[in-house]
Amino acid sequence: MGTTASQLPKDLLSEYQELTFLTKQEILLAHKRFSELVAKEERSSNSLRVPMEKILTMPELKSNPFRKRICHVFSTSDMKDGSLTFEDFLDLLSAFSDSATLEIKSHYAFRIFDFDDDGTLDCRDLENLVNCLTGETDDTRLTPEEMRQLINNILEESDIDKDGTVNLSEFQHVISRSPDFVSSFKIVL
Amino acid sequence: MDSVDSVFYTDRIGPSSNPLLDQLPSYQSLLYRRKSSATGSGTKRRGSSRTHSTSSWKWKGDRVEETPKTVSLERTVRELAKTMEEKRRDNEQRMKQDQDLSSWKKWRQHARRSLKRMKEDAVELLSRLELWRGDIHVIEGMFGTGILSYFSFLRFLVLLNFIIFLLMFGFVILPIVIAPHFSGNTTFNLYDGNECRYYPSTSRRGLVVFHQYITDVLSGTGFLEETYLFYGYYKVEAIHYPRITYNLPLAYVLVTVTYLFLSLIWIVKRSAAGFKRSLVQDEDRFQSFCNKIFAGWDFCITNETAARLKSSSLLYELKTDLEEERIKQKIADRTRKEKCRIYVLRLVLNLFVVAVLAACFYSIYRATVYSQKSQMNPPANFILDLIYEYLPSIVITLANFITPLMFTLIIQFEDYSPAFEIRFTLMRCVFMRLASIGVLLCSLWSQITSCSGSTCPCGYNHKLYPCWESRVGQEMYKLMIFDFIIIGAVTIFVEFPRKLIVTYCDCGLAKWWGQQEFAIPQNVLEIVYGQTICWIGTFYCPLLPAISTIKYFIVFYIKKMTLVKNCRPATRPFRASSSNFFFLVVLLIGLALACAPVIVSIAQISCSQACGPFVNYTTSWEVVPLSVSQLPDGLRTFLFALSSEAFAVSFFVITCLAMFYVIALAGAHKRVVNQLREQLEMEGRDKRFLIQKLCQAQVTCAISTAAAAQSHSVRESQDHRGSQNYDNPGGVFLVQPPVSATHV
């Protein structure tokens, strides 16, 4: 741990502490894990991008069905390839940390679930979401009939203004009443 | 924004993107809220610019972005959902703003910031000291939050028991232990020739066979009876230190009351949050699907197989829920004849359940009486004696093993909805388990208070039970030890072989049997049962909390091992939120059950005359009024006033008033919420209606201007007409950018 601590300057560390919900230990651990993904000679620069494929090899993300969406949401890359810098990575961990507020969590959850990035969850997004949850193979999917019933139920529960889609404020309203969300929307290294 | 679009599409008229919709006040407020309430304007804009880079109605430039700054200033930077870069910029901007402040304000802000930093560091340090942090993290990763809640519950009980032990140790045992070292003078209650004061020594004399030590350790008799372990050993009346006199009996009673109170408050505090949530959930049952979809995935799962299991359990859950909906429909369609049949069937089955429970309770009673009788006989056979000693524990464990199986079988015929089935079976099991302790205690008390003659000279059966508190303590001690042995034995001799058979045997039977499921409700019941015993027993056996702390400590590792090695997660998962609340409710029931016997024995039953700290009192509680009467005048009148009827009645009335107020408030809130919801729906409908009207107006307008343009086409050239069409009044209206509504 001593060597990685020296790689992260102290003022930067305290700035990260200020800007994220992570503790000092968590930031140091994140830095250690992140630099393990990078080749040795490249470690020095902070703005280095790690491609999505490499990020996804981390065990914390490997078995997550939303892994690609997570990378895309937190990536600041202009190429839209889901690659992350260390700071993006810290943003990710901060949103998924224990002490992040419900508002932050629900905001990012909404964007992760919004598969086509159009700002609302429509029927196709919901269908994608359910398929991600139940598994991608054919035998684990719901039948079209069941899917239709399910999506109708979801929209009936959450779509307050009855416009056929779930927008962010509706989503946050629903999430704020869902007691499990805060405890389950969490990734700890 | 797509929401607006899709509304539009449903009408199937008009152009594909309509800037008009941007001007709707609701959309503007949504935009504004999105920007101000920490919703990443930057990345959002990037995200949408990819898909809708051509549409004109997107975020209208940077003018809008500047507005929310004042709002967002109130929250810390890290609560904004922005990228690191933007957060850094925000922070710098704030710093700049801070520079204009006076030095006093600056200093105060600085102090506040560093204080906050220090607090965070302290919290972090404390959390690293937390027990089993790493273990719990591993379990969370492998099995998700449902099973995690069981383990954190176990940790809570370890802590609770440890605190109770510290209380007991600090206020009862420690003063006695340190008395000789601090030149304290201890006065004992001595045997003065009174018949009731006679306490025969139980330690074995002469040559002691080795296995008798084992019996003693397992059942708390013999040499163990005369130790700090049991009530009977605390014969101290008072300890005189150089300055003060320590009233041990008073301390003993007060510590007992304190630990019961402390447990109550701690549990209530822990369950308050869960209670609130479950109230909210109950009120809006319609949200179950959203919960499952939006909050269904445990992002903390790191294990591949666990992730697959989670997927399949979610699939199963969704399918059963959809099924349940259909079943509900079916139930609603039931005819009267069918209803009658089901109610009669339920009545009969419930009677059967009651009969089973009664039979169990009767056998526990018989076993207790028999075991007490046989303990009076001289020892004959080592094994047989041990079995007699443990007969009540064995019967209770057997009953608790068989009845749940029966209940799960019966419930299938009762035709309830699946969710209710699980809860109902659980409640029956809870009742069975906790009531069996009650039955045991009742039968013990019937033995203690009944004498061969008509009245007992000492207030209890002194001949058979010279020190009945120690005897009750021994029973609790035995129950605790036996429970622990059973937990260990089931793991080693049942669950582990089962795992081996299922893994290495290919026959169909083994496959059908399958791997062990980690059934959370049963496991929770098991530890709540142990905790109830601990609460009851602490008065009679002051070191019981220490034993139970150690027990739970080991149980944690046993359960972790069996979970990781032997078990697979349950197919029907237990939700963390509902389970947390459920655990605490069961624990509260256990506490209530534990309080009853302890209070009765302190206040009602005459305490032993031969042993313990209360030899000079008829009941243990008497020491409290006696000490109060020795207090200074002012304090005494105050305490008497507190315990008077006038105070009790007025307190009761005030509490009732407060409760009624809260109930009325809750009702009013509920009504307001319903009204608001209705209003929202109405407005949504209004909006759609207005949009339809507008679109129709647009279309008619466009057609009329097009017609007008056509009529003028004689003078106009062909290409000019296109531009004219574009410049029609409706068109100008359409492409107008959002007006100042955003600049609030």
Automatic annotation (TrEMBL), chain A:
The keyword Metal-binding applies. It comes from the Eukaryota. Keywords: Calcium, Magnesium, Metal-binding, Repeat. InterPro entries: CIBP (IPR051433), EF-hand-dom_pair (IPR011992), EF_Hand_1_Ca_BS (IPR018247), EF_hand_dom (IPR002048). Residues 101-136, 146-181 form the EF-hand domain. GO terms for molecular function: calcium ion binding; magnesium ion binding. This is EF-hand domain-containing protein.
TrEMBL record, chain B:
The chain crosses the membrane at residues 156-178, 250-268, 343-365, 390-413, 476-494, 581-605, 646-668. Keywords: Coiled coil, Membrane, Transmembrane, Transmembrane helix. It comes from Synaphobranchus kaupii (Kaup's arrowtooth eel). It is found in: Membrane. This is Transmembrane channel-like protein. Residues 1-63, 713-744 are annotated as: Disordered. GO terms for cellular component: plasma membrane. Its main location: membrane. Residues 713-722 have a biased composition (Basic and acidic residues). Belongs to the TMC family. It holds the Pfam family TMC. The keyword Coiled coil applies. The keyword Membrane applies. It is a multi-pass membrane protein. One of its GO terms (molecular function) is mechanosensitive monoatomic ion channel activity. InterPro entries: TMC, TMC_dom. Residues 467-577 form the TMC domain. Residues 70-128 form a coiled coil. Residues 15-29 have a biased composition (Polar residues).
